[in-house]
């Protein structure tokens, strides 16, 4: 057995004519079965989202472990890379992602509204479908045609160094990275004092996984804000407004660099229609990969937070449920449901059903 080839994802294991994509290896001990499940389901949905083919990729051995015939897997990866190097293919992938993102955002909002109101959440099957669609795009982490893109840009710009610089610049997301956004929001909170808003808007992003994070508690946010203020006082540090401006300026600088290098590549390919179109396709595909990563990470964590609250409201351990098991939760008082050996979470409220 081999664990990945050069350029393959770390979770890919090959055994004779079988590829095993094992997210237990990739993610490590995250403690929540549903997180493995999200990635496995997304992988299986990737042919539908990236190629318009309904047949799922492989079969599920267990949540997060997918068995795929090697020939099918290699052919799928090849065709996705080829498609993303065409402008029509890249634009279509972007449109499919944007539509899936809109559906998922609506579904997450509906779940959160139901949890706040302690009423039965409707449309969990729609949430799962939209989540599968968005999670399918995590496969761009290894299926983006970076080798071909680097070779193309290097040829246009005259050197491998220039081509690589241009390619990396295209991978800057069009919105600020969510971790920097969290830091910026913490700086703003140090000025506004709205600890509860920070806990709700960004607390769940403090760490990956389903477990409740410290920053979901306004008291912990207050402690972090106080520590920031103490450090600023001790180091005669710039005030928060200066730091916020610096973050904003850094993102604008990255945007300008991305656009300038893209313009240079377009200019270099202007006399060759095929090269010009491939340059455009590379830019679209790279920005898609960067933007989906930022959105997907945030949406994934919001979903996990909502599912944690839903499971706890039913008196169940949310870390032991698959996504289908969350969908199948039926209305009824939490005390009437089997506990499955789980302890009720500290932040469990009234049953949403």
Q: Secondary structure elements and their pairing?
A:
Blueprint lengths: L1 E2 L8 E4 L2 E5 H5 L5 H19 L7 E4 L2 E5 H15 L2 H31 L6 H12 L4 H4 L2 H12 L2 H11 L7 H15 L2 H8 L15 H18 L4 H29 L4 H41 L9 H5 L26
Antiparallel strand pairs: 1-2, 2-3, 3-5, 4-5
N-to-C order of helices and strands: EEEHHEEHHHHHHHHHHHH
| Poorly predicted spans | 1-7, 331-352
Oligomeric state of the chains? single chain
- The percent of residues in helical segments reads 55-70%
Distance between the termini: 48 Å
Strand content: 5-15%
Biggest beta sheet attributes: 5 strands, antiparallel
| Shape estimate | globular
* Average pLDDT figure: 87
Radius of gyration, in Å, reads: 22 Å
Task: Please list the strands of the largest sheet in the order they lie side by side.
Answer: 1-2-3-5-4
**Sheet/helix structural class:** mainly alpha
The number of distinct β-strands equals 5
Count of helical stretches? 14
């Amino acid at each position: 057995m081999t664990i990945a080839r050069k350029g393959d994802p770390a979770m890919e294991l090959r055994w004779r004519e079988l590829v095993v994509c094992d997210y237990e290896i990739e993610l490590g001990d995250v403690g929540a079965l549903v997180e493995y499940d999200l990635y496995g389901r997304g992988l299986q949905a990737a042919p539908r989202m990236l190629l318009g083919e309904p047949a799922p990729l492989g079969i599920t051995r267990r949540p997060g472990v997918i068995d795929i015939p090697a020939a099918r897997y290699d052919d799928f990866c090849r065709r996705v890379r080829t498609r993303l190097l065409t402008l029509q293919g890249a634009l279509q992938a972007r449109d499919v992602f944007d539509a899936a993102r809109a559906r998922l955002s609506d579904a997450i909002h509906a779940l959160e509204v139901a949890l706040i109101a302690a009423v039965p959440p409707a449309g969990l099957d729609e949430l799962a479908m939209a989540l599968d669609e968005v999670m399918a795009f995590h496969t761009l982490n290894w299926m983006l045609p970076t080798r071909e893109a680097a070779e193309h840009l290097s040829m246009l710009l005259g050197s491998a160094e220039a081509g690589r610089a241009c390619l990396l610049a295209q991978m800057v997301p069009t919105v600020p990275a969510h971790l920097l956004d969290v830091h910026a929001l913490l700086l703003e909170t140090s000025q506004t004092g709205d600890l509860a808003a920070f806990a709700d808007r960004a607390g769940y992003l403090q760490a990956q996984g389903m477990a409740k994070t410290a920053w979901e508690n306004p008291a912990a946010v207050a402690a972090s804000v106080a520590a920031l203020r103490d450090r600023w006082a001790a180091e005669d540090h710039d005030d928060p407004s200066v730091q916020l401006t610096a973050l904003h300026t850094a993102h604008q600088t990255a945007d300008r660099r991305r656009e300038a290098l893209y313009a240079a590549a377009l200019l270099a390919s202007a006399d060759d229609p095929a090269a010009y179109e491939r340059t455009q396709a590379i830019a679209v595909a790279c920005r898609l990969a960067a933007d989906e990563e930022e959105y997907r990470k945030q949406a994934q964590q919001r979903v996990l937070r909502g599912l944690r609250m839903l499971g706890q409201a039913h008196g169940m351990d949310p870390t032991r449920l698959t996504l289908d098991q969350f969908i199948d939760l039926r209305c009824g008082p939490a005390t009437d449901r089997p506990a499955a050996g789980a302890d009720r979470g500290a932040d469990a409220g009234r049953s949403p059903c």
